[in-house]
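Course assignment 3, question 2. Fill in each field.
Student: A.L.
Task: Predict the tertiary structure for the chain below.
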Amino acid sequence: MSETARTTIDQSEVDRFSAMAAEWWDPTGKFRPLHKFNPVRLAYIRDKVAEHFGRDPKGLQPLKGLRLLDIGCGGGLLSEPMARMGADVLGADASEKNIGIAKTHAAGSGVAVDYRAVTAEALAEAGESFDIVLNMEVVEHVADVDFFMTTCAHMVRPGGLMFVATINRTMKAAALAIFAAENVLRWLPRGTHQYEKLVRPEELEKPLSASGLEVTERTGVFFNPLANQWNLSKDMDVNYMLVAKRPL
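Answer field:
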């Protein structure tokens, strides 16, 4: 298959999330887990960006002057907070419905985000580049993980960062993130995740390394039912995040 014919899009996944698009900003709806997950991932991104770029993480706009891509942005749950922190945000998603919801919500919130219904490969082909690429809860839904990671990596500027968050392909993840989350706790609609599409950390690190990025941070994320919140952890068997940088 030629490079130009390759695609990162799994149309069945786009259709699945498009069908739920109206619920993106409902904290009690189908995207409730992402609303719960948002505080820990927002703090992690802010702190790592501030550390890397020499910013004050407690400042009003620690991301000011940085261009950021939120790939697979959905309804904009990450894009809007990033813009509030001062970043120049491009929110990209393959679903026109998701982008429509994101645009409407941003307009109502008075937040400036450049939302586009576009693929990663189209952005890369257009020569787009960014100081920060957010690749959060997306890789387990794409058609070609290697191609997707390589494409996103090519858009990271020298000295820039990429953040990746996903679910590990382990039996523990199958039990907790799929069976329990979808069938017992009903946090997610059944079929949201398929075990065979989950991605191990080394399967992300290989294309990142081949694209000239260096993975500098790895962390697990777990849900604490007693505190009713997500926390960082050393355990990467289920949910995890990676940070990679492109050397200057």
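Instructor remarks: The CA atoms of residues 163 and 243 lie 5 Å apart. The chain has a mean pLDDT of 91.
Grade: pending
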